[in-house]
Each structure stands twice: as structure tokens, then as C-alpha cells.
Design a protein that fits this description.
This protein is α+β, with helices and mostly antiparallel strands and about 130 residues long. Helix content is about 30%, strand content about 30%. It has helices spanning about 5-25, 35-45, 90-95; strands at about 55-60, 65-70, 70-80, 80-90, 95-100, 100-105, 115-120. Strand 1 (about 55-60) and strand 2 (about 65-70) form a beta hairpin.
């Protein structure tokens, strides 16, 4: 083996170590903090400016939220290392399947096809009509 091979091997090793250090320093792919009501409202306000929220339900595990805004349901759910927000008709949210404490909302979107939100009960009695 030549001296050039060892120099290239050392340079490659140093470059890999530098990339690992950069990823650790930048905290790439860090876990997302769970949602609470204040953070859910802030995300919804950012994604849907000008919409007034009638009510917000945050998932028990903090992985999503659902809000009523007039005739629309605004859905926030975890996807990858962040959250996505979608809007659907309120009637569609009321008809979503609820089993074992999990509301499964069909978003009809290729990028985020379904939102699963852990709630104690669904639909809410005060807004079901």
C-alpha cells in the first residue's frame, strides 16, 4: 500500500468525523416536543392566519391536535420530525373513526394521508351538532 492511500484514508476518516460532529452539533433529527394547547394554537395561527378557533382538542400523547373553526376542522399531526397542518370539513372530522382512544382522520392527501390523534372521547358532546 502506498503513502497516498493512507493519506486518502486519513482524510476520508477526518471528513466523516467532521460530518458526524456537525450533525450532533446541529441536532439534526432531534425529537419533537409534544404539543400542548398553547403550542397547538400557535401552530394553527401560523398555518391558518385569520381563522378563529372555536375549540381545540390536543392529543393525550402530544402527537397532534384538532380544532374547530366555523365549518372547518383544522388538524395538526406529527409527520417525521415536525408537524403538518391540514383543513377538512367539520362533518368529515365528526365522522372519523374512533377506536381504542384513537381518532383516525382521513386527510385525503398524498403527503399526509391520515392523522391519528389520541383523545379520550369523540365526537365532543358540546359540538357534535
Amino acid at each position: 500500500m502506498s503513502q497516498g492511500f493512507f493519506i486518502q484514508l486519513a482524510a476520508s476518516g477526518a471528513a466523516i468525523a467532521l460530518l458526524i460532529a456537525l450533525a450532533a452539533w446541529a441536532k439534526i433529527a432531534r425529537p419533537v416536543d409534544p404539543l400542548n394547547e398553547a403550542r397547538a394554537r400557535a401552530l394553527l395561527a401560523e398555518e391558518f392566519p385569520g381563522r378563529t378557533l372555536d375549540a381545540v382538542w390536543v392529543a393525550q400523547d402530544g402527537a397532534g391536535a384538532l380544532a374547530k373553526s366555523g365549518a372547518l376542522a383544522l388538524v395538526v399531526c406529527r409527520l417525521g420530525d415536525g408537524f403538518v397542518a391540514r383543513q377538512i370539513p367539520w362533518a368529515q372530522a365528526l365522522q372519523a373513526s374512533f377506536r381504542d382512544g384513537r381518532l383516525s382522520v382521513d386527510l385525503a392527501d398524498v403527503a399526509a394521508p391520515r392523522a391519528v390523534i389520541a383523545l379520550p372521547a369523540w365526537p365532543p358532546k358540546e359540538l357534535a351538532a
